[in-house]
Structure formats: C-alpha cells, structure tokens
Design brief:
Elements: H1 2-21, H2 26-50, H3 54-70, E1 78-79, E2 84-85, E3 91-93, E4 98-99, E5 104-107, E6 116-118, E7 123-124, E8 129-132, E9 136-138, E10 143-144, E11 149-151, E12 154-155, E13 169-170, E14 175-177, E15 182-183, E16 188-189, E17 194-195, E18 200-201, E19 206-207, E20 215-218, E21 223-229, E22 234-237
Parallel strand pairs: 1-4, 2-5, 3-6, 4-7, 5-8, 6-9, 8-11, 9-14, 10-15, 11-16, 14-17, 15-18, 16-19, 18-20
Antiparallel strand pairs: 12-13, 20-21, 21-22
Helix pairs in contact: 1-2
C-alpha cells in the first residue's frame, strides 16, 4: 500500500515539474496542471482496479479517516463499507485490525461505562455486532466468521407492570474473548462470559457460560465437546 501511494506522489511531482518548466502564462499553466493531476488520479484508480487493489485501498483509507477522527493512528486498521461505530470514544483498537462489511460496534455510552477493546491482529467478519454497556474485550489474534453477535447486557424484563422497552438494560458482567480464538458463523456470546485462549466456538452456538482455554464448544447452550490435553499434546473428546 505504501508503494501505491508513492507511485501517485511521484506522478503528481512529475506533472508539477513539467508544468513549471513549460513557458506559458500562470492561468493557462494552472489549468493544464489541474487537468494532468486529474488524469493521473484517474489513471491511478484504473491501475488499482486492474491489480484488484481498489478494495484494499478503500478499506485502508477508511481506517486512516477513522484514526484521524479519533486523533489516534491505529496501525493497519482496515474498515470495509457499511461499518457503523457508535460512541467512538468508547472503542479502542490494537494494530492490524480488519473489520468486515456492515459490522456494528455499539457501546451504549451515556450513563453506562461502556467499552469495546479490540486487540492486535483481530479479524472481524461481515455483519458482526458487538454491543456493550459494561466491557467487551477481545484479545489478540481472534478470528470471527460472519454474523457473530457479542453482548454484555440484555433488556430488563422483571417488572411485569412495565413494558420491556421501558425497563432499561442490565449486565451480568463483562465479556472477554481469549487470544487466538475462532468464533464460527452466527455464534453468539452473552453477558458475563469469558472464553479462554485458543478456543473454537462452533457455528450457531450460543455461549452462556465460561469456556476454558483450549476447548471446542458447540450447541445451544454451548457445551465443551473437545479439549486439548497439554501433556498428551492432542485433542480429547469430552
């Protein structure tokens, strides 16, 4: 990506030198300069498309724009189209985070001490939704498939004299996803859950209780079906 920017930079420099060295009046010179710069950028976009780099370029640019907005340069942040980030002051990224299409990061904010903390080298699949009124923490090297849902809260419902919509929300505690874990397609992690490092959460699983490190969990509610034996160095059925 740095090489691509350098190519564009040198194209513009060359255009500038050509115009400056040409004997012509200032207005005519500026007009020609703008035309050449526009053509250079147009050519640059065509080259990106031909090399299948346009999507990468756009996602990196969204990451840079978000970093500028936050006044904090997040190294290697890539943001696909349609991503929504609410209360961005409550969101923190590590390095080399990739965010898929139409992801929704939703710390509640307001009176709640909401935090979403995402570590290094995390890949967030398309249509994921992370919601927090407490804390959702994702450690390094976590991989998310599409449509994963994580929340550290739920709607209050215990007062039968009030509609649920008027009762607010409550949390059973923060959510933590351990490093190196993989969460499968349409899996869900609910309030108060800690998933240990290097776990696999199967597609469609709903995690309501803690999952120990080096485990495979599946089902509704999710249960551990395999664990890694550190002494035998192999996965064991549970």
């Amino acid at each position: 990506m740095k090489k691509v920017f350098l190519i564009l930079f040198f194209l513009i420099i060359i255009d500038t030198l050509i115009i400056l060295l040409c004997p012509m009046d200032i207005l005519y010179r500026m007009s020609i300069y703008l035309i050449i710069v526009f053509f250079s950028i147009y050519l640059f976009v065509i080259v990106l498309k031909m090399l299948n780099l346009r999507t990468t370029f756009e996602t990196r640019m969204r990451g840079y724009m978000y970093s500028i907005k936050k006044r904090n340069l997040y190294k290697g942040l890539s943001v696909q189209s349609g991503v929504r980030m609410h209360n961005t002051e409550c969101i923190k990224f590590g390095d080399n985070v990739s965010i898929g299409k139409y992801v929704d990061l939703f710390p509640v904010g307001g009176k709640y001490e909401s935090k979403i903390i995402i570590g290094n080298n995390v890949s967030i699949g398309d249509y994921n939704r992370f919601a927090s009124c407490n804390c959702v923490e994702i450690e390094d090297d976590v991989l998310f498939a599409a449509y994963v849902h994580i929340t550290d809260h739920s709607h209050e419902f215990r007062d039968v004299d009030k509609p649920v919509i008027k009762q607010g929300i409550f949390s059973k505690g923060p959510v933590k996803i351990g490093k190196g874990t993989w969460l499968g397609y349409r899996s869900e992690v609910l309030s108060g859950v800690t998933i240990g490092e290097h776990c696999v959460i199967a597609a469609g699983a709903i995690v309501t209780k803690d999952i120990p490190a080096f485990s495979v969990a599946a089902g509704i509610p999710a249960k551990v079906i395999k664990q890694y034996d550190l002494e035998k160095k192999e996965w064991i059925d549970v």
